[in-house]
Amino acid sequence: MKAVRIHELGDPSVLKYEDAPDPQPKPGEVLIKVEAVSMNFADVGRRSGRYGGGTPTFPIALGLDGAGTITAVGEGVEDRSVGQRVAFFGPSYAEYTTIASGSTAKIPDGVSSEAAACVPVTFGTAWYCLKEATELKSTEHTLVQAGGSGVGTAAIQIAKYIAKDGGKVVTTAGSEEKCRKALELGADVAINYTTQDLVEEAKKATGGKGVDVVLESVGGEVYKKSLEAMAPGGRLVSIGRTGGEVPEVGQDYLSQRGISAIRFGFGTLRNERMVEVRGQIEMLMMLIKMGLFKVVIDSTYPLSEAAAAHRHLEDRKAFGKVVLIP
After folding, report:
1. DSSP of 103-171
2. Do 64 and 21 have their domain in common?
3. Whether residue 137 is found in the same domain as residue 224
4. How, if at all, do strands 2-6 and 60-61 pair?
5. Cys staple from 14: which of 5, 10, 210, 270, with CB 3.0 to 4.6 Å?
6. Which tens digit of pLDDT belongs to each residue from 154-192?
7. Which stretches of the chain score pLDDT less than 50?
């Protein structure tokens, strides 16, 4: 089969479209013909070595999630069968992949493989951050940083869905075009961080109060500004550092402001509560089928052009998800 793997860390040129051994399912696994690959910024971090993770063992197969059709099942698998369409958590930059059956979720009829591939990590992260980690209430105001990212486009919609009793959804983007798209997606206010002051605009949008919940994925100075934009009692959840390291913030500062800040790792939660997470992913796909949520896909690339897709994502040109098609 063909796969995209890396044999060294570096820029997108290290992504090699090459022949790889055909995988066979072990006990408890399913073999999936991959039909769509969801690209995540964590793929960029792993490829470049920015996200660490210890000394790598090459070659590395990239990918956190995808979608496809089961073509074989391993010994002991009873909850999945050949021919089922599934979204999954696991390596996906290949024509075929083997995944633990428990890490797959059934795709409902009417949801494309391209859309389903983007649900596990993107929508799953946004859902758990807003519903559980911060316990967003229907009257509270939300700030979604990086509204044009995959998680950002999902979080705008989920926050709007939860904040049905007057809560506003504020988001940020780096261009007027992305701001316009964020408003069309459901945001009440879109702040162009290249020309507007985040704290000032967030306070203005909330009548001077500040936001109650922040979903922060950028790090660096944006993280600090996010804290400044919060109302007393506000909760910030950090899920990434695409723009810089997450700074250390003293507990004294948080206590004086009456706010809280936590880090959220969806991978850890999946490992601990996979049965529950799988059910939530299937529920989210049903909401997408019903039209309550939309998977925003910026562009698709053939798997063989993964390097070009990585450059597009790193250049911050995308609004929504970038998808690879094997």
Report:
1. GEEEPPTT--HHHHHTIIIIIHHHHHIIIIIS---TT--EEESSTTSHHHHHHHHHHHHH-TTS--EEE
2. yes
3. yes
4. antiparallel
5. 10
6. 999 999 999 999 999 999 999 999 999 999 999 999 999
7. none
